[in-house]
Amino acid sequence: MSEQPLRVMVVDDHPMWRDAVERDLAGAGFDVVAVAADGDQAIARFPAARPQVVVLDLQIPGPSGVEVAERVLRHDPSARVLILSASGEQDDVLAAVKAGATGYLVKSASREELIDAVRRTAAGDPVFTPGLAGLVLGEYRRLSDPTPSGPEVPQLTERETEVLRMVATGMSYKQIAERLVLSHRTVQNHVQNTLRKLQLHNRVELTRWAIEQGLEE
């Protein structure tokens, strides 16, 4: 039996852009189950459409993209949100990740980058436009500095921290293993140990946790 195509919803208030994204994704074999032009439409259509990935613009009429992300993920925590926005501003990126977005691409991304990002987002991999990956990485670096006045954070080993920073930039386990000359299993073990220490469940929660902690400084 052939594998079912990935179910995707596209939310953008610009008709030409929305149509182009829908066409590109459908051409890549995805099942575009719904489109929406504003926040209200997105929230209303999400339950029946049951998309696995929502490709979402931040600057949309009605409830903002950030609020849409929060609402749809509250309705279905297994869904993934990939932001596709004209903005690469720090505040927008951090707000989106805190709302639960798994990835963030700027609209200058190529068709191939978008298709790859949707696939990786569906798998739960944090995906960021290269320049924005450094922003998330910066939040991890801030976390590695001692903060005596802040909440107590479980101590990570040097290797766990190294792997964590690479996960934050959107690297896959395979890429991390090759970079550090480790086995795929060893990399997985480091990530699982980190999740257990922080009492989190997956890499998306890990990214959100890091940013929230960093912003509390």
Automatic annotation (TrEMBL):
List the SMART domains: HTH_LUXR (SM00421), REC (SM00448)
The UniProt record lists the Response regulatory domain at 7-122
What biological process terms from GO does the record include? phosphorelay signal transduction system; regulation of DNA-templated transcription
Q: Name one GO molecular function term.
A: DNA binding
For the keyword Magnesium, the answer is no
* Pfam families hit by this protein: GerE, Response_reg
HTH luxR-type domain boundaries? 149-214
Q: Which InterPro entries match?
A: CheY-like_superfamily, NreC/VraR/RcsB-like_REC, Sig_transdc_resp-reg_C-effctor, Sig_transdc_resp-reg_receiver, Tscrpt_reg_LuxR_C, WalR-like, WH-like_DNA-bd_sf
Q: Which UniProt keywords apply?
A: DNA-binding, Phosphoprotein
By what name is this protein known? Unannotated protein
